[in-house]
Structure formats: structure tokens, C-alpha cells
Amino acid sequence: MAGAVPTFTPTSSPELDHLLSTFRTNIFLPSHLLALQKTLVYRQKNHRILTNPEEPATVKLGNEVHQLHPLNHMTDEPNTRKSIAEILGLMKEGRDWVNIIPFLEGLKQSGRKVKAWQMEKIVRRMGKQGRQGVVLEMLRRVEGTGVRLGELGVAREAMWGGVLKCVQSAWSEEGVRSAERFVEAVWEMLSEERHVSKEDRRRDGDPKTRPEIVGVVLWVRSLWSVLFGQGKDEEGKVRRAAEMVMAVWGNKEVAVKEEDWYDANRKLMMWVPVWHGMKMARKVVGDNTPLGRSLKNAITLDLEPTLEKASRIVGEHVKGEADRRGRIMYNELSKVGM
Known about the structure:
Layout: H1 14-31, H2 35-42, H3 47-50, E1 58-61, E2 64-67, H4 73-76, H5 80-90, H6 94-97, H7 100-109, H8 116-128, H9 132-140, H10 142-145, H11 152-168, H12 173-189, H13 198-204, H14 211-228, H15 237-247, H16 261-285, H17 290-317, H18 325-333
Antiparallel strand pairs: 1-2
Helix pairs in contact: 1-5, 1-7, 8-11, 9-12, 11-12, 11-14, 12-14, 14-15, 14-16, 15-17, 16-17, 16-18
């Protein structure tokens, strides 16, 4: 495979630097070699050629010259699944996270599969650490990274990152505006075929028809209007988002399993922003308008019973432990713009 090998910049962790370097040398580089060059690298009888210090074997890829070294598939290649978990655990600072994009590009180029749940975890961890800007770049470079919004869990976590951005900014005007731009950018990408294919739509439906996805758009638009726009909707953005949510409300999945605290926590994360967004939207579109009354019905008949039940189930599970992020967000959003 022709082309340059993905490169990494120095991180805050020597262990992380070493792990990324190992992937680059032992996995990414070999995937770019021609068949004859791979024979030199992997076939033991040829290794004496590569270990001759007087005549090192090199290959030029892009603008970089690489020296070839003997490799063994069994002993020299790190496990992808285990390494992704290690890398996510080691990434702490902004200079660490910029390397996730070339890492994912290298995995894709070398044929290493990243499963949907791993992509979801990557986006979730990045949002939690306030790296929404890197998330956007990763999504924009979808052909290289393979992180697609057609995976419903990835789309949910990306949108959730906009909610976290507001919390992380302590609901500042700049933070809310930045979160709005982030959510709107993700929303636009959901219309792109490279992110959501026809096969995705056949399998899981269109993410843009999922009320928990559309609901975050309503949430961030309503939040801006209530906190910083004097409750006005001069461009009609809040109304349009509210109408979009109600148009797909029949697709909601709000039932909570009494015996499954994990499902309850997931439902809190999915529906708290929608509940909060609907309550704020009613202030903007009017409580007594037909749209305002439709929103109220969704709140009182569907969302409030779901959230109260889910919060109770999670609370009973985590007694004496650190609270879970669904309940934390439920309590956090209850204080804002109400």
C-alpha cells in the first residue's frame, strides 16, 4: 500500500509514546510495504539481510525513509482491543488526544477492525475530557478514521458531547455558543452518505428520526434562547427543532427495565437533555400554543415518569458508591434555565 505512514506527536506520557510508536513501527509501516518487502520483514530466513549494519534495508514512503527490521506476527504486534483501552486510559491532555486521529487512520489502513462499541467509547471518553474539537475533526475525516455517525451509539455519544461542553464551561455564554456550533455540525454530518449509508438506515433507521438525537438539537437551541437570547426565537430555530422532535416522537424508546440499572442509567443519559430542552422550549414557543401543549404532553406522559423511575433504579444501585453520569446530568440540568 503506497502512501505515508501516520505520524504521532509527543504526548504527556512516555508509556503512551512507546505504545503509539510500537503500532507505527510494527503494524502501520508493514501494512504499506510491497509483498517482497513483507517477505523480508516477516520471513525468518531473510532476517540476516535486515540485521546487516553495513547495508540497512530501507523503504521510502511519502517523504520519509524507514529502515526495515525483522518482525514476528505473534510476538511483535500488540493486541488491538487491549491497546485501544490502554491508549484511552493514558490520554489525558490535549496534546495526547490529537494523536487519536492518526492512530485510527493507521488502524484502518492496516486492516485492524475497530468495533462500533469501541468507537462509541472513544467518542464518550473524548467528550468527558472536553475534547469535542478533536471529535469534530475525527468525524470530518471519517474516510480515514472510520468513526461513523451511522452507528447509533456513536451519534448519541457525539451529541452528548455537546451537553457536556455546556456543563464543562459552567454554562457560560461562550461555552453554550460553542456547544451549539458543535451540535449543529454533528447534526449536519448526519445527512452525509459517508456517515450514514443506506445500509445504516435499513439496519437502525435514520439517526435524524431518533427523538433522542433531534432532542439535543432542540435542547441546545432552547438553552441559548432562554439563557442568552431573552427567550426570543427570531430565526424560528427553536420552533423548527421542537416540530422536528414531535414529528418523530412516535420513535421514542422510553420504557425502563426495573431489574436493569444499566439500562436505567442509559435512559437517563438519552432523555434528560430532551426533557430539559422541551421544558425550555415551552418558554420560547409558548405554553398555551398547540406546539407548547404537545411538548407538555410528551414531558408529563412520557419523559417525567421515565426519568423518575430511572433515577430511582440507578440511585438504589449506587448507594455508597460514586453516582452514575445519567443521574449526575439529571441533577445538573435540573438547576439550569428552569
